[in-house]
Amino acid sequence: AAMLTLLQFVCFDNIVLIYRPLVQGGDILLLLYFIALILVVGIVVMNLVTAVIVNSALEQTAQDKDLMKSLEEQRKKKILKDLRKMFIRLDDDGSGQLSRDEILTVSEADKEVLR
After folding, report:
1. Which residues contact 89 (CB under 8 A, 6 or more apart)?
2. How far apart are CA 33 and CA 99, in angstroms?
3. Separation CA 13–CA 38 (nearest Å)
């Protein structure tokens, strides 16, 4: 019964049925106690809910940043690999450097890689 009463206070579910008979007895300390209890319990519960939501959002943001960083790194590795293959294909004389004539022979597929 005590846990049910506590749950009623946390949810503000018909708590008037609990505190009204006690407060109507005229004890000012009980009145102050229940006012403080209602204010504190409400604020604490809302702060806890807000903290859980904010913490969850921050964790999701961190995961999203890590995922984006990983995807960007994979994309850069693929581009670098494609560029190396393209420069090896274009280097007709095998010198390790591209001349103007070799650059001018770039195919349409290689031009797409550069875009």
Report:
1. 110
2. 88
3. 11
- Tell me the pLDDT of the chain (115 aa) as tens digits: 788 887 787 777 887 887 788 778 878 888 888 888 888 888 888 899 999 999 999 999 999 999 999 999 999 999 999 888 888 888 888 888 888 888 888 888 888 877 7
Amino acid identity of residue 26, one-letter, is: G
| Amino acid sitting at position 19 | Y
Q: What is the pTM of this model?
A: 0.50
Q: What are the residues whose beta carbons fall under 8 Å from the beta carbon of 15, sequence distance 6 or more?
A: 8, 9, 38
Residue from 41, 31, 40, 32 nearest 8 by CA: 41
Say if residues 7 and 41 touch (Cβ distance below 8 Å). no
